[in-house]
Structure formats: structure tokens, C-alpha cells
Design goal:
The complex is a heterodimer of chains A (268) and B (348). Chain A has ten helices and ten strands. Chain A is α/β, with parallel strands linked by helices and 268 residues long. In chain B, a hairpin with a 2-residue loop joins strand 2 and strand 3. The chains are: A alpha/beta (268), B mainly alpha (348).
Chain lengths: 268, 348
């Protein structure tokens, strides 16, 4: 059976034979992975399939024991998430990782604030809040994120979906090459979720490749271009919403249907 | 699972963007909302009201001499409260403020009076002691990962014991010290109201810290770290460094408070500042800074310190026993924390 024909362009991000062990537990047992330009790749898998370990390796939160990760064809090794971010890999977490009492613009620039030019910046260390507010406003408008009127209103006054919108805008705002979204809708209601999904599509349409980790099959099938199914520490299969139904994907995920990854993905 | 079916978590949102639309709120909610967005408004109202009430109750409350007295009574605790605000903003608490101040003041005084060190060197050594004490607190919090409450409870006793050992439980008289150490007790007069240099120094430090917290990257990272440490870390902020720097800066501020203390009492006493811990926390809390971190303004702390000073002084002038002054301050703290909790629920 059938994994999807891979596109012929160079992957933005790829991994070969990733292995990660925690003591006696083998979380990743030689996983391969590709993300192509301008696509939404969903990563699904049962608990313990190595889904989150894979994501941690890709985002620099864990260092794989063996295997390689390539970014646009070049081999990379990140020692921590900051290095991965510096290389253009951004992550959005389900926990709405924003600072509630700070305003929207401050959150967008948190950890990479910009100082003023000249004396005020170099000696007084003053932040260029005017510039950052301006950038934040245009960024939020560009992404069509909700009807936020006041860029200096605290994030805690926003709804859950709007907060996630801020987190997504932050991930997409800084010349990022890959955005990893870990269960971005898990903490949200139905209406809010669909707004975030719209936002994910908007980003994709702007050419930013996205890795979407989700348990929510309807969401996965709604937005993704391809679906990476992780099983028993390896890539079980790659399917598309067109080639497989939800229940077929779940069957592969749980092992009810056997697939031979190497049959279709002999890339070595 | 059907995507279009409304789920239980789909709450009905108020119309329009939140934050600016207050038309659907009750009066009480509106008050809650205003206090939420204007953190220093509450303390400012309380200060103005208490000044009005005490000036009616006690004739001499607004006399220049009494104003001078209040300022002097506030300057030590007010300075300590600057450092305490920084630590509480990071969701910590510092119980060793008083001990660090006393230890620094004794070191300054001893070096000047007994060792005969020149004033500037004795002063710098005292600042160094405050800095090191803060560094120890910060390392225990960030490296050993102990809760700030426990760390500072421990170091409170350590620093206080060192202070008793170095001073041999004896007060160092001001007349034996360099004039520089006593400089904070000198004053300038505006009309008949006296402002000591210590009080001026305190106000300058408030202004500097207000600037730093609002306008610098460090200030913003202090708020972010206290607000949600994990979110700050995921945003790329080195939260351990921020925390460590906060404790070191606070230690230095306590040492400056030690200098102001020497000027205030014209001596260095190993028993001074025993109530400074709780008074500094009181000033911060009354000033509207949340004990849960990430929320508060340094200006509020100044107002908080002034409120405590005005209350103590006003009740005294009104002839009320000191035990009832403590009673009133205790009630103030509880009300302030209760209001903080209520405000935080505004849009949780």
C-alpha cells in the first residue's frame, strides 16, 4: 500500500534515520521525515509513536542519538531551541505560550526586542516601542488576525483564539522558514479553532511551510496537504486527505492496516 | 466528530473587541475593569483620601514639619520596596531585605569607624556586601532551584547572624563615621518642608527604576518572567539570567537603603530594620503589585510606601495607640490583596 508520491523539489526540512532513546525506551527508531515548500504537513500518531520526540528533535528541544536533519539540503545540528529559532524554525505551543499581562506588540517581539537608534538606544537602552507597535500592527493586519483595534492592549484581554493568533503571528513574523505547530487548537473552542485553522492556511498561502501536530482528525483532514503517520518510532506512511479517508489513516496509525514504508519511500 | 457541531468549550463571546467595550458591564464590573487597566489608580485614590481624612482629624498633619517627618519615615522602607517590587514582579518574595540592609550598614559603618577606611571605599564595600547577598539569593533560586520564600528565609537568618557577629551586637555611633555615610541625613529645605538627601535619592531611584521597567528590554523581560516563566523561556528569554540579575540589583538597592538608614538614625544599629521585611512587602502589595508576579507598577510601590507612612503618622497624631496602627496596616494589606485577587478575575 501506498504512500504518497513525493514531490520532486528539495525538501525545506528533512530527516533521515533519526534515533532517540531514553534509557531502555526507544522513542524514535530510525524515522525519516520530509517537509516540502509551501505545504501543510500534518504529523499524527498514537501515544508513544514518537510523534512528540520527532518534533522535539526537529525544533532543537532534543538532540537525536543518531540520524541527520537537513534544512534546505544542508545538514544542521541544533543544541537548543534558540539555535533552531535562529535558523528560522519557529514553534507554536498548545499552551498559548504568551505573556498575559504584556501587550500584543510586546508579545510579538518578546525575546527579540529592538532598541532605538543612537544615544537613546545605545546608552539609555531604550526600546523602540513605536517601531515595534507599527510592525506588530501591520503584521496582524496582513495576516488578517481578527479585529484587534489596539495593539497595546494586554494579551489577557483577548480570547483564547486571539491569543493563539498572536502566538502564530509571532512565529510567522521573523523570516521564519518553518513553523511547527504543536496542537495549536487543543485549548480552543470550535469557532476559535476554525479561525486558527484559517490562519494556518493563510500562512501556507504566503509560502510558509507548516508542520501541524494534532490529535484532531477532522482538523488534520481539513487543512493538511500531506499527512505523516508516525508508528512505533518510525514513519508508518505518508498519505493525503485525498488518497485516504480518516478511518484508513487511523487504521494505519493504530496498526490495524499494515503498510510497508520502504516500498514507497526507498530514498536511500 | 463533527466539526460544525458546537462543543461545550465554545463560549459565547461578548460582541466587539474586548478591552474597550464597556457598555455591557455593570457599574461594579466597570470599576473592576478600570482598576485592571490602571493599576496605580487604586493606591492613588487611597493616598489622597487618607491625606484628606487625616488633615481633618489632626490639625497639625499638613504642617511642614510633619510632612518632613513622614518623608523621612518613608525613605528607608520606600527604597527597600523598590528592590522588593522587582522580586515580587518575578513572582518571588524577599524576606531577607532587612537583614541585607542591616548587614551592609554595619559593614560600611565598621569599615569607616573602626578600620578607618575613607568614606567612599567604606560605602562601596557596603554596596558590595549587598550585591553579594543578592547574588547568593539569586544563585540559590536559579541554580539550586529553591523557592524564593525558603531561600530568603534561610539567608535572613544567616545575614542577620553575620551582622550580629561583625557588630558584636553594638551600635556604631554616627560621630565616629565618615561624613559621607551620614550625608543622606542632610537636607534641603523647600519652604519649611525639609527634604533629606536620602529622600531625594529614594525618589531618583524610583524614577530610574520606573524608566528601566517601562522602557528597557530588561524591564520587559522581568515582567515576562514573572508573568509566565515557561512562556518567557519559550520566547527565547533566558529566565534564569533575568532572575539572577533581579536578585543582584535588589541586593544593591538594599545596600543603598542601608546608606539612607545610617543618615536617618545617625548611627548603624544591628537591631535596626527588623520590621523592614514586612513593611517593604506591605508597601509593594498596597501599591497594587501582584504577589503572583508580572503585574504592577513601581509608582504604585511609592504610593504604597507613602500610604503606610501617612497611616502610621496620621493615626499617631490622632492619638491612637501604636498597636492599632499595626492593626490598621494589617487591615490595609488584606484589603489590598483581596482587591488584587478580585481585579485579576476581571478577565481571566
Amino acid at each position: 500500500m501506498t504512500t504518497q508520491e513525493a514531490p520532486t523539489t528539495t525538501p525545506v526540512m528533512e530527516a533521515r534515520g533519526l534515533v532517540k532513546r531514553y534509557g531502555n525506551v526507544t522513542a524514535l527508531n530510525g524515522t525519516d521525515f520530509e517537509l516540502y515548500p509551501g505545504e501543510i504537513l500534518a504529523v499524527i500518531g498514537d501515544n508513544g509513536a514518537g510523534k512528540s520526540t520527532l518534533i522535539k528533535c526537529l525544533s532543537g528541544a532534543e538532540i537525536p542519538d543518531s540520524g541527520v536533519i537537513r534544512l534546505a539540503g544542508e545538514e544542521v545540528l541544533y543544541k537548543n531551541p534558540l539555535e533552531a529559532r535562529a535558523a528560522g524554525i519557529e514553534a507554536v505551543y498548545q499552551t498559548l505560550a504568551v505573556s498575559p499581562s504584556l501587550d500584543i506588540a510586546s508579545n510579538l517581539f518578546l525575546g527579540r526586542e529592538r532598541r532605538r537608534k543612537g544615544f537613546a538606544g545605545s546608552v539609555l537602552r531604550m526600546l523602540d516601542t513605536g517601531w515595534m507597535n507599527e510592525q506588530a500592527r501591520s503584521r496582524m493586519t496582513e495576516l488578517g488576525i481578527m479585529t484587534i483595534q489596539n495593539i497595546s492592549q494586554p494579551v489577557e484581554t483577548l480570547s483564547g483564539g486571539q491569543r493563539q493568533g498572536v502566538a502564530v503571528a509571532r512565529a510567522a513574523a521573523f523570516e521564519s522558514r518553518v513553523v511547527i505547530m504543536d496542537e495549536p487548537t487543543a485549548a480552543l473552542g470550535v469557532k476559535e479553532s476554525s479561525k486558527v485553522l484559517d490562519l494556518i492556511r493563510t500562512l501556507r498561502d504566503k509560502g510558509l511551510p507548516i508542520i501541524l501536530i494534532s490529535h484532531d482528525m477532522p482538523h488534520v483532514f481539513e487543512v493538511s496537504d500531506r499527512i505523516h503517520i508516525q508508528r512505533l518510532g518510525r514513519r508508518g506512511a505518508v498519505v493525503t486527505p485525498q488518497s485516504h479517508t480518516m478511518s484508513e489513516a487511523v487504521a494505519i496509525m493504530t496498526g490495524a492496516t499494515q503498510v510497508d514504508e520502504h516500498g514507497a519511500h526507498d530514498l536511500s | 466528530m463533527d466539526n460544525t457541531q458546537p462543543g461545550a468549550t465554545d463560549t459565547i463571546e461578548p460582541p466587539g473587541p474586548p478591552g474597550d467595550d464597556t457598555s455591557h458591564m455593570t457599574t461594579l464590573q466597570r470599576i473592576q475593569h478600570v482598576l485592571h487597566t490602571r493599576a496605580t489608580l487604586g493606591p492613588a485614590i487611597v493616598l489622597v483620601l487618607s491625606v484628606i481624612i487625616f488633615s481633618i482629624v489632626a490639625d497639625n498633619f499638613l504642617q511642614p514639619g510633619n510632612i518632613s517627618l513622614i518623608i523621612q519615615q518613608v525613605m528607608v522602607v520606600g527604597t527597600l520596596a523598590i528592590g522588593q517590587t522587582l522580586i515580587i514582579l518575578t513572582a518571588g518574595i524577599d524576606l531577607s531585605v532587612g537583614a541585607i540592609m542591616v548587614l551592609s550598614s554595619i559593614v560600611m559603618a565598621k569599615l569607616s569607624a573602626d578600620a578607618g577606611l575613607p568614606g567612599p571605599l567604606a560605602l562601596l564595600a557596603g554596596f558590595g556586601v549587598g550585591l553579594l547577598c543578592g547574588l547568593l539569593n539569586g544563585l540559590l533560586v536559579t541554580r539550586v532551584k529553591l523557592p524564593p520564600f525558603i531561600v530568603t528565609l534561610g539567608t535572613l537568618n544567616i545575614f542577620f547572624a553575620l551582622n550580629l557577629y561583625i557588630s558584636q551586637s553594638a551600635t556604631v555611633r554616627g560621630t565616629d563615621m565618615s561624613d559621607l555615610l551620614l550625608w543622606t541625613g542632610n537636607f534641603i529645605s523647600i519652604g519649611e518642608t525639609r527634604f533629606t538627601y536620602g529622600a531625594v535619592l529614594m525618589l531618583v531611584m524610583f524614577a530610574v527604576m520606573a524608566f528601566v521597567l517601562k522602557w528597557t528590554m530588561w524591564g520587559r523581560h522581568v515582567y515576562a518572567t514573572g508573568d509566565d516563566r515557561e512562556a518567557a523561556r519559550l520566547s527565547g528569554i533566558r529566565t534564569d539570567r533575568v532572575l539572577l540579575s533581579v536578585y543582584v540589583v535588589a541586593g544593591l538597592i538594599y545596600a543603598i537603603a542601608a546608606w539612607i538608614l545610617i543618615g536617618r538614625i545617625a548611627a548603624a544599629s544591628p537591631q535596626a530594620g527588623l520590621t523592614a521585611n514586612l513593611d517593604s512587602i506591605t508597601a509593594v502589595v498596597i501599591g497594587g503589585t501582584s504577589l503572583f508576579g508580572g503585574r504592577g507598577r513601581i509608582l504604585g510601590t511609592l504610593l504604597g510606601a507613602l500610604i503606610v507612612g501617612v497611616f502610621r503618622n496620621g493615626l499617631q497624631l490622632a492619638g491612637i495607640d501604636e498597636l492599632w496602627q499595626n492593626f490598621a496596616v494589617g487591615v490595609l494589606v488584606l484589603i489590598a490583596v483581596a482587591i488584587d485577587q478580585w481585579i485579576r478575575r476581571a478577565r481571566a
